[in-house]
Write a structure and sequence with these properties.
Helix content: 55-70%
Oligomer: single chain
Mean pLDDT: 90
CATH architecture: Up-down Bundle
Number of helices: 11
Strand content: under 5%
CATH class: Mainly Alpha
Order of helices and strands: HHHHHHHHHHH
CATH topology: AhpD-like
Distance between the termini: 32 Å
Radius of gyration: 15 Å
Structural class: mainly alpha
Shape: globular
CATH superfamily: AhpD-like
Number of strands: 0
């Protein structure tokens, strides 16, 4: 696989805008592990290998288990996720696949049982952000496997600052 172009270098202004959204999401108060599960699930739905690799690495660094990472696409069939995580994963799937069912009422009601209005808006912002990052990484063929925690390869910086959040 060969990258097509470096979107961050081509359009640093756009990258800055996307990073402001990413910063907002990470300062929202939503649990870091929950955000990584959401980002991983959306990335798997979208087929973004780069982002799936990144978010599994970040989640592991935050203490996430291999079992939960391997099962995130099968969350409905496993007992490994809390009710809050289940609601977030259902919401992630519905928002990511918005063209399929236009976010069904039952998914909204499930999410509203465990997230207050502000949290649901913030969670949706996280889903919007990762779906945007996925599309850039897929369109411009960001090479999977190149993301390293604590390192800043040129194309990893395009996608977001999870590593700097982990470093603290």
């Amino acid at each position: 696989m060969h990258p097509r172009l470096d979107a961050a270098r081509t359009s640093p202004g756009l990258r800055a805008v996307m990073m402001r959204l990413e910063d907002y999401v990470h300062q929202s108060g939503l649990e870091p592990i929950l955000l990584e599960l959401v980002k991983l699930r959306a990335s798997l739905i979208n087929g973004c290998a780069y982002c799936a690799d990144m978010h599994t690495k970040v989640a592991r660094s935050l203490g996430e288990t291999e079992q939960r990472l391997y099962s995130v696409s099968l969350w409905r069939e496993t007992p490994f996720y809390s009710e809050r995580e289940r609601a977030a994963l259902a919401w992630t799937e519905a928002v990511t696949l918005v063209s399929v069912d236009h976010v069904p009422d039952d998914v909204y009601e499930f999410a509203r049982q465990v997230f207050n209005e502000q949290e649901l808006v913030d969670l949706t912002a996280a889903i919007v952000a990762i779906n945007s990052w996925n599309r850039f990484a897929i369109a411009f063929r960001t090479v999977p496997g190149t993301f390293q925690l604590g390192a800043r390869p040129p194309d990893a910086e395009v996608l977001h600052r999870s590593a700097s959040r982990v470093r603290g």
